[in-house]
Design brief:
The chain is α/β, with parallel strands linked by helices. Helix content is 40%, strand content 18%. Helix 9 crosses helix 10. The longest helix is centred in the last third of the chain and has 16 residues. The radius of gyration is 22 Å and the shape is elongated. The protein starts with 6 loop residues before the first helix and ends in a 5-residue tail after the last helix.
Length: 294
């Protein structure tokens, strides 16, 4: 069987199975072999690797992964794609297809079963609306990860890589950079997909850190501060903290911590990097312990 990266082959498979694209799953299938090669290269997959693929679709990228990796587990949420995957992946003995929602899978158990608990590599062509929840679930659940290579909307990739103070920087930027080093491997135009999405895409590799770039006593508090700051970008940092539904510090407590951190009283949260947020979190945690309300 010819590779699915040939658009004619993709069309034949879809017609044979009378497949209907579902908007709720954000289905856009890759049909460009050069992009597929770039994804595999970016993920740095070797014959010793186990790969977890999220959202294999009809198996276009999965075919490439199978030719490079020791073993592939492809998790697909759309049950109508499962018989298609069994057909398109039938030449490969090193792949297993699982029907399910990746957010409901025990990825730590997957790593243990398929890779003896060692860090795994994750590859995905994700529906854009669920990109952030999936990536953050992978990081926050502390599953053993080597890297995560995903196809995302270009502006999402730009945000993941953005530096503090830039217009693209947001809560996602700092969260991703706390857990990983982002590297944009390729920009992908809409004509590389079937059907064509309305926006450009990018392949980004998130190289998972062995150690966090900053030390903080209360990681949860730090991320609440980050979200509070970027949820109200136009407000000063102290107002963002005081108005947050996730926090219960007064404006006076926020102002005192900001002053102790050596920051300008009227600074906005978007100007801060991870080190400043970590320091602020430690000061506010200390304030809480010493009798402040939290």
């Amino acid at each position: 069987m010819e590779k699915l990266s040939n658009p004619k082959e993709t069309i034949q498979v879809l017609q044979k199975h009378e497949f209907q694209f579902k908007k709720k799953f954000g289905q856009n299938f890759l049909i460009d072999p050069h992009v597929l090669d770039k994804i595999v290269d970016a993920a740095q997959i070797t014959e010793d690797d186990f790969v977890l693929e999220i959202g294999p679709g009809i198996g276009t990228l999965t075919q490439y992964l199978c030719e490079c990796a020791r073993q592939v587990l492809a998790v697909e949420i759309d049950k109508n794609l499962i018989p298609i995957l069994h057909e398109t992946l039938s030449p490969y003995e090193n792949v297993e297809v699982r029907n399910g929602d990746i957010l409901k899978q025990d990825i730590r158990e997957i790593a243990q079963t398929y890779n003896a608990g060692k860090p795994i590599k994750v590859v995905a062509n994700l529906p854009y609306y669920i990109t952030t929840p999936i990536i953050m679930e992978l990081f926050e659940s502390r599953v053993p990860l080597a890297n995560v290579t995903v196809m995302v909307q270009k502006e999402v990739a730009d945000r993941m890589k953005a530096q503090p103070g830039s217009k693209d920087c947001g809560a996602l930027s700092l969260a991703v950079q706390y857990y990983a080093k982002p590297y944009i491997a390729a920009f992908v135009p809409p004509n590389c997909f079937m059907p064509r999405p309305k926006v450009g895409s990018a392949v980004i590799r998130l190289e998972c850190r062995e150690e966090a770039p900053v030390q903080v006593a209360d990681e949860t508090l730090m991320f609440r501060l980050i979200r509070a700051s970027f949820n109200q970008r136009r407000k000063t940092l102290q107002n963002g903290i005081a108005n947050s539904s996730e926090l219960s510090f007064s404006k006076a407590q926020a102002a005192e911590a900001i002053e102790k951190a050596g920051l300008d009283a009227n600074i906005r949260g978007e100007k801060l990097g991870l080190s400043e947020f970590a320091k602020l979190a430690d000061l506010l945690a200390e304030e809480s312990v010493n009798g402040g309300k939290k």
